[in-house]
Amino acid sequence: xxxxxxxxxxSGNTKKLADAIAGAVGVKAENVSVPLNEKADILxxxxxxxxxxxxxxxxxxxxxxxxxxGCVVNFSTAAVLSSTYKQxxxxxxxxxxxxxxxxxxxxxxxxxxxxNHPDSKDLKNAADFAKKICKxxxxxxx
Length: 142
Prior knowledge:
Layout: E1 3-7, H1 13-25, E2 29-31, E3 40-48, H2 56-65, E4 69-78, H3 85-94, E5 98-99, E6 104-107, H4 120-140
Parallel strand pairs: 1-2, 1-3, 3-4, 4-5, 4-6
Helix pairs in contact: 1-4
């Protein structure tokens, strides 16, 4: 099973989650500016909420790499909104990409809001989430 981790971040919050997830599943986290070189059975895709939506770089990544993505597993940070799942799910559907029904989301710091998040507990939870997703996927593919 091939696994990839891609993310977009402006503040560094989502990169922290991407690194924790990548470490847990034994791959390198890359920015969405790095295309997929081979098919990813599972793509952990991280984004943040900016002006109530995901950045255009995430949209472009999904458009450009749709043929190489088996299933997208969303992870995100945001100071106010609950997640980017709805936005990423719509983009996946437009591109004919399967979207996992589970996601990981935590608060990200923005100014004085949610200071120091994601914190060590958030990072551990993200790593545990990734391991669980991969274990479930390997069991269901047998």
